[in-house]
């Protein structure tokens, strides 16, 4: 029996909207059915091991503020990793969350050689698998940390030194295999340092080609070992580098097409990465859905007054309603889900703060999903959009799409059929009011 870390906190119940209990769900009723599927199956929420358990609460001006027994600097690194894992699974079970996500370096310490590090990861993943079996908690996705160690300071696959490329390849090979053993639904590649700080020392073309080669190697290995999960790239425009190559979904799509990977790799979007790229979160989800490459979503939010990746828990029901609308229109998740890539604030030092953060996030997502389903069931919004584009379904519009027209024939039709279009209102304010009826 492991030591209880979250003392005094039991299993988080669902108590309904009227509840004033801060340690209860008000909207996330896991088994409630919405459009034929339970909330849990729609949302597939996951806890991010790194923010919740590996991060000490440090920022660039000061050290960690979170007192966790596994941060004891005098402790044996493996014992500390075990303690951390016990607390993590205690948290997953008490929260009632079906999934978690991890980096190799979150669950196990780094050794002196890659072989030693891999050994630690194997040992800790075996412990995790036992706990997964006991608790029923599953792995949404795994990923390798290719950005913390100084060897990766100039990038992993995009490093000027091919030895770093090789090291990263070996690390990903192992983490992909561990993710497969653990039954992970996806494998994520976030290009944390795949970019540049200055073009003065950077051969951009070479680096892009290196990354294309790397991703092809990952996909080849996935097929070789028979991993059935989805490979995902996580776009982010900057931070830690000045410019990251996987800038946004449009950029990643172009990259995938250039290197022949458009049918192999999808995206893991993140709310705060979308806003850092100058897009709304909704734009990124809509763009990924429209292009058939939405894989999974890292759920968080930024702060409109701050220009960096604050990774806060979502709490804006209006915004999340629109995200859920795009998701439902796209048919929902298959192997993906909503991973809370979000951290509690540096001042949130009580273990209960971790519960409040996730409860709030899950409630916000549940409300958003219920609202979005009501908007879809109401049908007014879709009817408006359908009518707006109805001209493309038959006649002139259909002829253009069927390649029956040229510039010449269109010029002739405009003249012969007396075509003289009249502007029609986009009715933005009416539609905004319509949405607010459901929020
Ligand atoms: C960093 C970030 C990462 C990835 C996984 O901004 O989002 O945590 O999700 O490496
Ligand atoms: Co992320």
List keywords for this structure.
alpha/beta, two-stranded antiparallel sheet, 16 helices, 46% helix, 11% strand, binds D-xylulose
What does this structure look like?
The protein has helices spanning 39-43, 49-54, 77-95, 104-107, 114-135, 162-181, 204-225, 249-258, 271-276, 281-290, 317-329, 351-378, 380-388, 395-401, 407-416, 428-436, and strands at 33-34, 37-38, 45-48, 99-103, 138-143, 186-190, 195-196, 230-234, 243-244, 265-270, 294-298, 338-340. Helix 3 packs parallel to helix 5 (114-135) and helix 11 (317-329) packs across helix 12 (351-378). Helix 11 (317-329) links the parallel strand 11 (294-298) and strand 12 (338-340). 46% of the residues lie in helices and 11% in strands. By secondary structure, the protein is an alpha/beta fold. The chain contains 16 helices and twelve strands. It binds D-xylulose and cobalt (II) ion (CO). D-xylulose (XUL) binds at residues 103, 143, 188, 190, 234, 236, 270, 298, 309, 341.
